[in-house]
C-alpha cells in the first residue's frame, strides 16, 4: 500500500479515524508525514498537563507518563490498557512535538499536580514554540513569584488563570489573559490592573488603594479599559460611589 | 447501450428480493446487477442513474459503465451495498473518532491484502460510498494500532526523509519535457 498515493480526501478520512497515539507515531516517520497529520483534524483533541500529559478525544483519554530522562518508549495509559509512543527524547520535547504537529492549544495546565520542576520544563517548551495555553490553574502550586512573573511575560495564556497563594510584586499577569481569578492578591497593583486586558477580574485582598481604585473606575466609566466587563474585589472601600457600581456592606466591590 | 453476451453476470443473492434492478459494467467488462436500495449507497452511481433518467422499466436495458472500478472491487462493493441497503442512516459526524464497531461480516469482507484494500478504497472513494469508506478507514486505522513508526512506515509504504530527498533530487535533476 502506498498511503501517500491516496487522494487527499481519502487520506483525511483515514487520518480522521485514527487515535492521537497512532497519529503521533505516524508523525515520527518523516517530515512529510508530520505535516500531513494536520489532515487528521487534530483540533478535535484536548491536551492537558497535570500528573500526565493527557490527550482527550471524545470519551477517550490517553495519559502519557511524564518519565524522567530519555527513553525509547514513552508509556501511555488508556482505558483498555497500555500503549506507547516511540519517542527517543525527554517528555517536554515530546510535548513540543505534539503541540507543533497537532497545532492545537493546551487546554488546561494544573500546576499543583504537575509539580514545580515539570511545570518549568513544560513551560520552557511551550514558550519556545509560542504555543497557546487556554486555562492555567496554579492553586496550591509552589512556584515562586520571580519564576512565574518571568514566565508570564512570554507565555501565551489566553483563558483563565486561577491563583490562591501570596505572591510578591514581581508576579505578572499574562498579557492576553481573559479571566483572572486570584485570592491573596497583594501582588495585583494598580499598574497591573491598568495593563490588564482581562474581561473578568476577581481579586481578593489586593493592594489597590481607595484612591487608585476610584481613579480607575472613573476612567473605566468614561470608556477606558474597554475589555473589562466584570470586576470583583474585596477589602477596600471606594471613596465615592459611582453610578452603576454595586457596593456590598461586607466591603466587596462588584462592577459589571 | 447493449451488453456483450459472453460477459459474466454476477448475481448477488440478496438482489433477487428487489424488483428494481440496475446493471453496472466494471472496467474489465464484468456485469453486475444491483438493487435500487443498494445502489443508493453510492452517491456517484445514484447521481448518474438520476441524471440518465433510468427507471424501473428501462434500467436493465441500460447498463452503467464504471471505468475506474474493476470486477473484483465491484463485486465486493455490490456485496457490501446489498448487505447494508436497509441500514438506518448514520448519525451526524461528530468532531471525535467515529465510535462504531466494525461488524464481523464486514471485517471478513475486508480481510484482503494491503494492495487490494488500497484499490478498494480508491474505488469506494470514486463511487462515494461513505459507509464503506468508514469501514475501510477503520480497517486501515486498526492496522496502525500498537505499531512502531518503522512498522507503520512499512505497512503504509511511506518513504523516509532520505528517500523523499533522493526523490526530489532525481526529479530536479531529470530534464524537463522539452529536454
TrEMBL record, chain A:
Transmembrane segments: none annotated. It holds the Pfam family FBA_2. Residues 1-48 form the F-box domain. InterPro entries: F-box_dom, F-box_Sdz-33. It comes from the Eukaryota. PANTHER family: F-BOX DOMAIN-CONTAINING PROTEIN, F-BOX-CONTAINING HYPOTHETICAL PROTEIN C.ELEGANS. This is F-box domain-containing protein. It comes from Caenorhabditis latens. The lineage of its organism: Eukaryota, Metazoa, Ecdysozoa, Nematoda, Chromadorea.
UniProtKB/TrEMBL annotation, chain B:
Keywords: Ubl conjugation pathway. InterPro entries: SKP1, SKP1-like, SKP1-like_dim_sf, SKP1/BTB/POZ_sf, Skp1_comp_dimer, Skp1_comp_POZ. Residues 23-85 form the SKP1 component POZ domain. It comes from the Eukaryota. Pfam families: Skp1, Skp1_POZ. SUPFAM superfamilies: POZ domain, Skp1 dimerisation domain-like. GO terms for biological process: ubiquitin-dependent protein catabolic process. Residues 130-166 form the SKP1 component dimerisation domain. Belongs to the SKP1 family. This is Skp1-related protein. It comes from Caenorhabditis latens.
